[in-house]
Amino acid sequence: MGLVFILACMLSCNSKRAGEEENASADSASIQSERPAHWSYSEEGGPAGWAELSPVYALCGSGKSQSPVNILSDAVKGSAEWRIDYKKTPLEIAHHEHVEELINNGHTIQVTPHEGSTITYSGKVYHLKQFHFHTPSEHTINGKHYPMEIHLVHEADDKSLAVIGVLVQEGKHNSNFDQLIKYLPNAAGERKTHDSVSIDVSMNIPEILSAWHYIGSLTTPPCSENVQWLVLTNPVAMSMEQLSAFSSRLKNNNRPVQALNGRMLTIETLSSKN
Ligand SMILES: [Zn+2]
């Protein structure tokens, strides 16, 4: 399959030290008072009712540029210039139960890389803040879900967001993900830092990629809009066992597709700095 990626997740594991650091997070008390209303993917508190849970979530119901969307693969070719520059980082991984801040996506397993990985769009730099996983995929292609989708969330200095979505299909075992799967948290609320495990976020990214581009939103409350979305046109493959390592932990954490409302999708070329 050649591709990909991704992101990474090719983790090269440096020698594991005995007593590797594992920090259980205990920071919830300090932010308790500002914690937004609880939401979920189940019937109660689920996507259809997110807007009613809190005024802060209003856009989840009234927004006209929401994500995810169904992508029709015959989009027109665009001319924007995107450039990816991903670096190595120690592995910091958490299984979130609650939203703790805007781009900390609740109800997912999230990896938080160190500073230094970026994408650039027309001279504007977006810093990679975290990546996380949805099972099944949130975006659909010609109406079809993939078993998983990885979201790489980037933020610019002016707080605007750009997200790269990577679709994952079932295929051969993908050793790029072995180390990540080995360290997947087992319980919601678990947070671990593995300083001795190094993730090369750039590993295996081809020099030239293409992606569907559109303007959308966060796919979780508060569903904020004006998010630059890039969904890579080439999926990554993983074995069924590898996919189940994620889906058994995440269950179904996908928001249904949202109306396009006339938004245009284009196919853009991304270059990477490898
Ligand atoms: Zn996501």
Short description:
With 274 residues, the chain is mostly beta strands. Helix content is 10%, strand content 37%.
> In what range is the share of β-strand residues?
35-45%
Instruction: Choose one word for the global shape.
Output: globular
Q: Radius of gyration, Cα only, in angstroms?
A: 18 Å
The name CATH uses for the topology is Carbonic Anhydrase II
Q: Given the structure, what is the number of helices?
A: 5
Relevant CATH superfamily: Alpha carbonic anhydrase
User: What about the largest sheet?
Assistant: 8 strands, mixed, barrel
CATH class: Alpha Beta
Number of strands: 15
Mean pLDDT, to the nearest integer, reads 80
Bound molecules: zinc ion
**Terminal Cα separation, in Å?**
18 Å
As laid out across the biggest beta sheet, the strand order is 3-6-7-9-10-13-12-15
Low-confidence stretches: 1-33, 98-104
**Architecture, according to CATH?**
Roll
User: H/E series, N to C?
Assistant: EHHHEEEEEEEEEHEEEEHE
Structural class: mainly beta
Give the number of domains: 1
Helicity level: 10-25%
